[in-house]
Amino acid sequence: MNWFDHLFYIHSAVQTVIVLALIIAIGLGLGKMHIRGISLGVAFVFFVGIVAGHLNLSADEQMLDFAETFGLSLFVYTLGLYVGPNFFGLMRDEGIKLNLWSFAVIALGTIMAVGLSPIFGISMPNMVGILCGATTNTPALGAAQQALQGAGLSGSGAALGCAVTYPLGVVGVIIGMMLIRRFCVRASDLEPRISSEVDNTYIAQYVAVNPALGGKTIADIAQMTHMHFIISRIWRGKEVIVPLANTVIHIDDNLLVVTTREEADAMEILFGERVKKDWNREKIDWNAIDSHVESRVIVVTRTVLNGKVLGALHLRDAYGVNVSRVMRGDIKLLATEDLLLQYGDRVTVVGRPEAIEHVESFLGNAVQELNEPNLGAIFLGLILGLALGAVPIALPGMSAPVKLGIAGGPIIVGILVGSLGPRAHFISYTTRSASLMLRKLGLSLYLACLGLEAGADFLHTVLRPEGLLWVGTGVLLTIIPVLIVGCIALKVGKLDFGSVCGILCGSMANPMALGYANDTLKGDSSSVSYASVYPLGMFVRVIIAQILIMFLV
Questions:
Q1: In the chain, how many domains are there?
Q2: Kind of pairing between the strands at 322-328 and 331-334
Q3: What's the CATH number where 285 sits?
Q4: 224-252, pLDDT tens digit by residue?
C-alpha cells in the first residue's frame, strides 16, 4: 500500500493535485443536491475541504498557497473580464447606489465591532482580527498586523481571531442570504433588474409623411437631428431598397428604422407616422420578409478590425449594405458611425446576398476561431492584475501602505481589459462557456484550499477558552449587517434579490457566497453588482482595519 500513501498522504505535487481534485469532485457532486429546495452549489467544496482537513488530509504548504492564489486570482480576473464590457455603463447608472449599500454593510459591521468590544471584554486588536475573519478579508488582517507591529504590539491575537471566525464568516453570508430569501423576498424580487443582458436597440416601422423630408437624402435627414438611427430597409410600393447615405426619401416610403427605445417616439415626430407592428419580438425570420434582401449576422474575426470605428470601414459606400445592430456578448448595440468594434462582435448586415458575401469576407466570420480560448489575454491579464495588487499605496496618516492584493488587483485589471482593451487593439474576447469554466475552476481551487487549511485546526481553535465567544461574535458581525442592509435594500432600494446578493458578497469579500448566488439565481446581476462594489469595498475595509488600530488601541 506504499503507492496509496504516496498518492494521498506523502506531500508532493501529484499528492496535492489528487487531494484538491478529490475535494472538488466530492464538493461539486454534493453541491448538486437540493434539500427542501436549497442547494449550496460550489460552496459545498469548502465544507468538504474542512472535513478533509479534520481527517488529517493535508498538502504541501507552498503548493497549497500557490493553488489558492492562482484559483482566487483566476476567478476574480475572469469575472472582471466578463462584466467589463458593460461595467462603466452600469457604474454611470447604478454604480454609486450599489456602492452606497456596500458601504452601509461595512459601516454597520464596523460600528458593531467597536460597540461589542467592551461589552464582551474582547480587546480591540483581537476584535479587529475577528472582524477581518467575519468579513473574510485577509488583506485587512495584514494591514492590521502591520499597524500593530508599528505600535510595538503583537499581531498573534488578531491572526487567531481571524482564523477562528473565517470559516463561519464564509458560511454566514450564505445563511444571511437564505434567511432574506425565506422571509423578505417576493417573486418579483427574483427577476433580474441589473444584468449583463442589455438591449440598447429598438426596431420600428414608420411611414414618411413629414413633408419636410420629401426629396431629402438620408444623410441630410441625419444632419437635421441629434438623434441616432439607422434605416435598415425602405419599402417603396413593391420595391425593396437597401438605403445608402445618398438614398432620397420619398413621401409615403415605408422605413424600417433601428434606434433606441427612448428615441422611438421622437422618430415618429421626425418621419410622421408609426406603423403599429411589433418588430422586436423574438425569432423574426428577417429573410422571409423580402426575397431580394437578406439579413445576416456576421462575426468580426479579423484581428485588424479590433478597435476600429464602424464608420471608418465605409461598409455602406463600399458594399451597398447597412449595419443595423451589433451584438457584444449579451448586449445589443445600435450600429452608430462612432461605435468601436471589438473582436467577436456579431454584426447584423442587411443588403443584397452577393454584397453580403463580400462583407462577410471582409469582416472574417471565422466562427471556429472564436471557439479557441484566448489564453494569452488571460495570463497577461493575471500578470498585470497581480502586479497591480502588489503595488503599495501610501495614504496620509496610515502607518503602512495599502495594497489591493491578489483579488483587488486582478478584478480591476479584468474590468479595464474587458472594457477598454479594444481601444488599445487588445483582443480580450472569451466565449461565455470558456469564461464560466475558468471562473468555476478558479473558485473551486480557492475553496478547496481554504477549506483544507481551515479544517486542520478548526475544532482545536474553537475549543479554546475564548474560542466559542469569538466564534459567536464573528457570527453576529457577519449575519446581522447582511440581514439588516439586505432587507432594507430590497424594500427601499428597489433592487432585485440577485443584485442585493452581489452587494452583500462584494462588501463581505466573499467569492464563495457569490458562487452560491450564481448557482441558485438566474441571470448575472449578482456577478455584475459584486464586481461593482468589491474593489472599493475591499479597499475601504483595509483602511478601516488600520484606523481602528491607530485610534482605539
A1: 1
A2: antiparallel
A3: 3.30.70.1450
A4: 888 888 888 898 888 888 888 888 999 98
